[in-house]
């Protein structure tokens, strides 16, 4: 049974079920547009996922059939009603960038489960996740240029690195909407599922990841992030530096034993 964590806020619930933490944006009356309460909750959730050894995967989703319609500038300019959230907003340096997955990301996989609108800041959040499950009928897009704004969540940098340049520029410079099917063809998202099924499928993927060796999964993520942009020789040196300790771990021995004994491995992250 999922446990509601005390770092949850009025606009962001954080629940843990075994090795998986699910973070849900909850402002359905505003299509889950970003607020201070939401960003503080997400910033604390990412830190919790990163710091908690037993947690292996995070899922980001939105309540009531919507993902996130971007920033609500009015709501973000008002002080939160919750005293604890006000205190955390003051304590957390750049809590908005942390919440948006711009400046830091957990060293563990994040899966986005998207229904409805995931536009502007919603698409920027998507770009900070590692696996993206999107329901049919959802709407993606970076609308900032159309409104005379700028994608401050990092999309002007990230999007051209994640999909081909001309597709990225088509999305960024026109500010148009993108369908899930088009996003899949671009390689922007992982899979398209029937409406209402995004969270269920994301949890299936999360459970598959959680069943793998956590040291292996985290080392693969770390290798990708540290070697992005490097030439192959330099990247392989870093890959070896990260990879050999995984081979020497107790989990590696357990994985070999489990294969030999034809049973599921019991990984401990050691």
UniProtKB/TrEMBL annotation:
What keywords are assigned to this protein? Lipid metabolism, Lyase
Q: Which Pfam families match?
A: ECH_1 (PF00378)
Does the entry feature the keyword Lipid metabolism, yes or no? yes
Under the heading PROSITE patterns, the entry gives:
ENOYL_COA_HYDRATASE
Tell me which Gene Ontology terms the entry assigns under biological process.
fatty acid beta-oxidation
InterPro entries documented for this protein: ClpP/crotonase-like_dom_sf (IPR029045), Enoyl-CoA_hyd/isom_CS (IPR018376), Enoyl-CoA_hydra/iso (IPR001753), Enoyl-CoA_hydra_C (IPR014748)
Molecular function as annotated in GO? lyase activity
The record's region (Disordered) falls at: 251-270
The UniProt similarity line reads: Belongs to the enoyl-CoA hydratase/isomerase family.
Protein name (Swiss-Prot/TrEMBL): Enoyl-CoA hydratase
Q: What is the lineage of its organism?
A: Bacteria, Bacillati, Actinomycetota, Actinomycetes, Streptosporangiales
